[in-house]
Design brief:
Helix content: 55-70%
Number of domains: 1
Number of helices: 6
Number of strands: 3
Shape: globular
CATH topology: Four Helix Bundle (Hemerythrin (Met), subunit A)
Radius of gyration: 16 Å
CATH class: Mainly Alpha
């Protein structure tokens, strides 16, 4: 059994959201849409990508509670999702609010997961198998990684 619990992971996600939200709101909207370099997503596109990640993981976290055997999920084309949703044409405030609200919802979902599902195996696309616990922990690390890009100087 892992030392941390799903409750602790939910607390970690909530802490991450609550720390980042005021910083995101302090960014000027024009900065959110400014290029970060050739081939790089803008800040609003990165936050949009985090919404896409929340959507994909949301269904994984819920479906994991339906089963007790290994779960197999499809991967997704991150660039296609960002491009097709035209995040750059959205308002910074709207994207921030959606990201924040969606992740606060996921906090509640994670809190409700039974501890006996920590080792439930999940397979996503071509990635190696991982436990549900590791999947959620990686989801939080993924958010933190991208928030550094959004809140950094470039």
């Amino acid at each position: 059994m892992n030392k941390k619990s799903f409750t602790q992971l939910a607390i970690n996600l909530k802490t991450c959201i609550d720390k980042a939200s005021p910083q995101l709101r302090s960014l000027p909207p024009e900065m959110a849409k400014t290029s970060r370099g050739k081939g790089k997503w803008t800040r609003i596109e990165i936050l949009g990508h985090l919404i896409d990640s929340a959507a994909n993981n949301h269904h994984r976290f819920v479906r994991a509670q339906e089963k007790s055997e290994e779960l197999i999920f499809p991967g997704y084309d991150q660039n296609l999702w960002v491009r097709s949703q035209a995040y750059s044409e959205s308002s910074w405030e709207g994207i921030m609010t959606l990201w924040e609200s969606y992740n606060h919802h996921l906090v509640k979902v994670i809190e409700g997961i039974s501890e006996n599902l920590q080792r439930l195996q999940c397979k996503i696309g071509d990635d190696p198998r991982t436990s549900l616990y590791e999947l959620i922990d990686d989801y939080i690390a993924h958010i933190e990684h991208h928030l550094k890009q959004v809140l950094g100087s470039n």
